[in-house]
Amino acid sequence: MAACNPNELGFDVIFAWEDGKDDQNQNAQIDGAINRDDITCVICLLVLREPVQAVDCGHRFCTKCIGEFHLINPGKCPKDWQDIQVFPDVGKKREILSLKIRCKNFTVGCTWQNELREQKGHLEKCGYESVACQLECGEFVLRKNMQNHVDTLCPIVFPCEYQEFGCTFKGTKMLLNDHMANNMGTHMSFEMKYQIQKVKDEFNKQLTAKNQEMVRVKNEMKQLGKDLEKIKTTNEELVEDLKAKGKQIGVLTERLKTIEELKEEVEHNEKKIEDVKKEIDQTLEKNNKDLALEINDQLQEKCNANILMHQKIQNNLKELQAKLAQQNKL
Fold this sequence. Notes:
Layout: H1 24-28, E1 29-30, E2 34-35, E3 51-54, E4 60-62, H2 63-72, E5 86-88, H3 90-97, E6 100-102, E7 113-115, H4 119-123, E8 130-132, E9 140-142, H5 146-153, E10 158-159, E11 170-171, H6 173-182, H7 184-286, H8 289-329
Antiparallel strand pairs: 1-2, 3-4, 3-5, 6-7, 8-9, 10-11
């Protein structure tokens, strides 16, 4: 479809029945049916693009043309300066896009003719369209001649395709093609040397990495040896400490045994005291009250002394048990 872009001015076209010359009869009447003035913008004087029509005066303009005019002269007709309002003229747009035109390049050989709406699509592939060199040398050539220009005429210099392998040749496309055709053996030699060097570089890279890994492992082994010596020394110290603790435990065990024996002796003495007390109690019943009281006082003192001794022994026993428990924790 033709480009109906409101950001552009009118169409500058040559109709199929025109020969491109500035002929007044052709300008006034198109094919004897359509008046050129009826499809021409009164501002840009080109064929209407996205036409709009003014209410009352009936003049037609391109959408972009009247838009720019109204930025300076709001609401005015540029032809008769009446106050106007404009609306899209869809019928006129369809009529204009249906008109047959020649390619703008018909003077240099293009024979294309079709409706105006097809113009943009044609120009994008027209062989007679002048376009910039695709290699950006700065020259403009016909699209149909582009390949020949690139291959034989373009002054842009290209490096050899085997540049990365060591070839230093640079030249135009044509010279480059000749160079590629005449130096296949040299290029193969370049590539082979490059690949061999690449393998060597990769081998050296891996060898360096392996050496670095060996150094790292060696350092780690050395450090592990030092750590092992530290552990060995620590273990020896722990063994000596355990031996000392064992001796202390032995001493405490003997003390505990002695305390247990003393405890048994105290219990045995207590039993004897109880037995004696019973005997005394029986004797007191036979003696008078005063004698009984005297004896009872003496016995009470002895009992109290034994109780104090027993408590002292119990306290010593508890202290030794606490020390033994603390040594066992260590």
